[in-house]
Design a protein that fits this description.
about 200 residues; alpha+beta; three-stranded antiparallel β-sheet; about 15% strand; elongated
């Protein structure tokens, strides 16, 4: 927990007997503007921000018992960042993470529709009498939907850097993933490029 008593991170421990060791990676769970936790998706480590320097309390809950210990995170002297910049990064990162989760659902939906279209075409082609009207309508819809699919579904990592990916475009999913990586890195304020892309994708 932070100095205000807000939970910043959770670690699950094994219930097996014996000594155990777990290490907090000094990352914190992102939260939306209304205070709800935003659990990271498959990105794992990229779904967390660095915890700000300050005082924290580690709590161990065992049955009805709670053991606690004070923890101090000292600032990295190589990095100069004020509280205003940290807040800007925190808020932008939370917005990007919400977009990422929504995009994950969208990608799944698009893939499901693609499978249904392929199945429909296979079944229609098996029929002896398929009118030109039906063929043309299906072909027209497929062409339009493939354009949407290219915009939404990621096509692999490639060799581009995340910054280049954000600038040049690519599928929407890849652009959002790159933005989450940019905003969730070292404690720096979001760049004008990050903010422009975030505003564009939120529309």
């Amino acid at each position: 927990k932070d100095k205000d008593g807000e939970k910043v991170y959770d670690i699950s421990l094994s219930k097996e007997k014996g000594l155990q060791q777990k290490t907090w990676n000094m990352r914190c769970i992102a939260k939306s503007q209304d205070g709800k936790e935003i659990k990271p998706g498959s990105g794992g480590f990229a779904g967390y921000l660095n915890a700000a320097p300050g005082e924290y309390t580690a709590e161990l809950h065992v049955g009805n018992q709670t053991l606690s210990k004070e923890i101090t995170i000292y600032p990295d002297l190589r990095i100069e960042v004020d509280e205003e910049d940290r807040i800007a990064q925190k808020e932008s990162f939370a917005k990007a993470l919400i977009l990422s989760k929504k995009m994950g659902l969208t990608v799944t939906a698009v893939k499901n529709i693609t499978r249904q279209l392929d199945k429909m075409r296979t079944e229609l082609e098996k029929k002896e009498a398929m009118s030109d009207e039906v063929q043309n309508a299906l072909k027209s819809f497929e062409e339009k939907f493939r354009d949407l699919e290219d915009e939404v579904v990621p096509k692999g990592i490639g060799l581009r850097s995340s910054r280049e990916e954000s600038l040049r475009g690519g599928s929407i999913a890849r652009r959002i993933t790159s933005m989450v990586g940019n905003l969730g890195g070292f404690p720096f304020p979001p760049t004008s490029t990050d903010m422009h892309l975030l505003k564009e994708l939120e529309m």
